Amino acid sequence: MLELGKFKALVAYRNEEQGWYLVDETGDEVLLPNKFVPEGMEKGDEINVFIYLDNEERITATTQIPKINLNEFAYLEVMDVNKYGAFVDWGVDKQLMIPYSEQSNKMEIGRKYLVYLRFDDKSDRLVGSNKLNKFLDNEELDINENDEVDLIIADETDLGRNVIINHKFRGLIYSNQIFKKIYYGNVLKGFIKSIREDGRVDVVLEKQGYKNVIEPNSKKILKHLQDNNGYVPLTDKSDPEDIKLTFEMSKKNFKKAIGSLYREKIVRLEKDGVYLI
Question: Quick one: which of 135, 151, 162 has its CA closest to 190?
Fold first, then answer.
């Protein structure tokens, strides 16, 4: 079955004037227009294509790489607005519509928004939505503490930054756990710190534990020393904000990392900073 909004491996079946018709395992056909046909394609070749509706509402295949897939979120730019809604660039020829009924606030041309791609049963079309909370549900979590997860940075709160986890769940990174600049719409890797009884999920950007945190931090400090004549004017008495701006890490992790380098006799610690030996 050819499902809109997803990639599918199909087989070249017949060549017509407008392009190659591809078939799936059930015999369903879809056109791959000439402009997307790779050079030298022959009958029987398998090709991975994205399925969507073209400007004439026909099911079509493309080799273009979309910025968003079905049932996922992405940070997309509004290219046009008309009486039907806003239209965003999602990486394929036909722009994706976000109807006014699916906009949290009225979208503006030139601005970027987090968008969810869904299939609309009423119109049999792919549509976007900016009402993100409708598509996030922490009732049935399939993640565990310490798991590495995919994150999309969402809005800022008094506590920190909300995040979308694996395109399915809500999470939060507390402000005191953020040691580098992050922006709305950023796509990052993160780790599950804790899952509460009420389903709330706390997330961190660095994996916890000496081996996974201190060793990378030690390497970061060492490289900084090598790139700056073997000296950094920071100590265990330095302001945490200065450490955060320089190394994107907490003061606690900085102290542990330079302690590790000191024990290995890689650095010496002075009142005015850290020196490379």
Answer: 151
Q: Residues 235-243: what's their mean pLDDT?
A: 87
Are the C-beta atoms of 169 and 152 separated by less than 8 Å?
no
Cα–Cα–Cα angle for 31, 61, 70, rounded to 5 degrees: 145
7-62 to CATH, choices 2.40.50.100, 3.10.20.600, 2.40.50.140, 2.60.120.260? 2.40.50.140
Structure tokens at 162: 């909300």
Measured from the Cβ of residue 39, the count of other Cβ atoms closer than 10 Å reads 4
Token pair 């991975």 in the structure block, residue: 48
Report the C-alpha dihedral over residues 81, 51, 4, 8, rounded to 10 degrees: -150
Q: Which residue has the higher pLDDT, 60 or 277?
A: 60
Contact 163, 190 (CB under 8 A): yes
Topology of the domain comprising 210-276: Arc Repressor Mutant, subunit A (1.10.10)
Fold of the 73-133 domain: OB fold (Dihydrolipoamide Acetyltransferase, E2P) (2.40.50)
58 Cβ contact list (under 8 Å, min separation 6): 31
d(CA 128, CA 267): 54
Helix (H, G, I), strand (E, B) or coil at 190: strand
| pLDDT the model gives residue 126 | 94
Residue 180 CA to residue 274 CA, distance in Å, equals: 21
* Distance, CA of 23 to CA of 254 (rounded, Å): 57
